[in-house]
Amino acid sequence: MTLLASAPLHPDAIREVLIVGGGTAGWMTAAAMTRLPAGIRVRLIESEEIGSVGVGEATIPPLVTFNAMLGIDEASFIKATQGTFKLGIEFVDWGRQGDRYMHPFGEVGMDMEGVKFHQHWLRQAQGGDPTPIEDYCLSAVAARLGRFTPASSDPRTVLASLRHAYHFDAALYAGFLRRFSEARGVERVEGKVVGVSLRDSDGFIESVRLADGRRLDADLFIDCSGFRGLLIEEALAAGYEDWSHWLPCDRALAVPSANTGPLTPFTRATADRAGWRWRIPLQQRTGNGHVYASAFTTDEDARASLLAGLEGEPLAEPRPLRFTTGRRRRQWVRNCVSLGLSSGFLEPLESTSIHLIQSGISRLMALFPTRRFDPVLIDQFNRLSQTQFEQVRDFIILHYKATQRDDTDFWRHVAAMDAPESLERRIALFRAGGRFMRDGDELFSEASWVAVFTGQHILPQDHDPLADGVPYAAMARKLAGLRGIIRKTAEAMPTHETFIARCCQPP
Ligand code: FAD
């Protein structure tokens, strides 16, 4: 998008945007808004006294596009954020204790004879072949070998099937985006918001009041104030839909630890007695945390479990966080759009929170209003946001629902609970011959769902009859050949450390 700096603005154009909050959501929004036409003033208020959650360390591949859209150089970003590369998430002990499977990014196998790859794999598995589906995915094989290189742009090579994301220090990313945004005209205001004034005529936000008495007005307000939802909830009462009956985890403890072994190019999520633990490798430290359900364990037991699972020395006291899983009923109300934790929260099992910020920003940019705030735009934004939150919610619930663990009350509870009808339908469809239908432009691909279904033992008894078009033995040879190419390609890639060292070298 090239904008003419001198072009006159639309007569009803938004002229002042005020972002409240400077966590990951606030600074990602500010950075994206540097692309608005000149003449639109963007300000961001944050309070050093309040601080940010700043835990988000693991991401999914679309963030690569977000950074590229801003023109951010990947090597500078990795260097500035202590970043590492991520090829997927390893799930340990989820389906059964002792299980280990990868939800890799990137493509898995390839469709053949007009039939989905996983159907060919299913047919071979039903015929007795024990090869896990991840062996047909370069991202998964490279991740397990500790290798990394970005995807090739040549679609004829298997290297084109890779996708990557990042692990990074969220506070450093916010700082990086702050420098980026301020250099492009975003004005930062240090201060604590203590009041919000609504216009008498229509209830739109007129201004916010800071603790030192200053008043800041704007046409469009973006609420990035975190869990409280200072504008969207406290001032505009958007309402909150609580999903904790499906996702009972409501607390977390986060702690950094010293690095020990090689930097794995994947996040690890290990199921625990009443929740799960994350492990996220950064260049200088490892990020760890334990997400747990307070109805099923105590804070002391959760802390002990987290510390017992660390591979290196803890570098700080575990930091407690509390949350209620769910979503803001209306994420855009009048002239206020909520992004980030103020718009809802889903536990970071699939590293989706930062992505939900990114996609909220894209939606806002695609539906950017004038000062007339056409209700059709607001309604569209809210409907799309609801659909996306629900789709991600279902994918996360699947990890709990599809467990065969019965060793604690927590696992017995989540295995027995009623899942949302939308998820029950998907599970039933997959059980009936491995069928899967993606809804529109939903975030997680068929390959992602298949990875979790099969990794957690939802294995259909049958397969697509069209997969029988190729003789079993011929398909077995084809698949063995594909595995060989993938393995060889992964082995020829540099180690993750070597790639990072190259990336972070001074120019
Ligand atoms: P916050 O980080 O809370 O920032 C809020 C901002 O608002 C701060 O700058 C604060 O100063 C400001 N503010 C608040 N009140 C006021 C006021 N009165 N006046 C002025 N300023 C104010 N996401 C991922 O994508 N991957 C992960 O691996 C991941 N892990 C997570 C683990 C846990 C346990 C939790 C809880 C979250 C995790 N997330 C993860 C989510 C991620 O942390 C958030 O999505 C991200 O940090 C965005 O937060 P935010 O900017 O919305 O809010």
UniProtKB/TrEMBL annotation:
Could you confirm whether the keyword Amino-acid biosynthesis appears in this record? Answer: no
The record's active-site residues are K86
Binding-site residues for FAD, renumbered to this chain: G22, G23, T24, A25, V193, L341, E350, I354
- UniProt xrefs under InterPro entries: FAD/NAD-bd_sf (IPR036188), Flavin-dep_Halogenase_NPB (IPR050816), Flavin_halogenase (IPR006905), Trp_halogen (IPR033856)
Task: Provide the residue positions that the database annotates as binding 7-chloro-L-tryptophan.
Answer: K86
Keywords attached to this entry: FAD, Flavoprotein, Nucleotide-binding
MF term (GO), any:
nucleotide binding
Name of this protein = Flavin-dependent tryptophan halogenase PrnA
Q: Which gene encodes it?
A: prnA_1
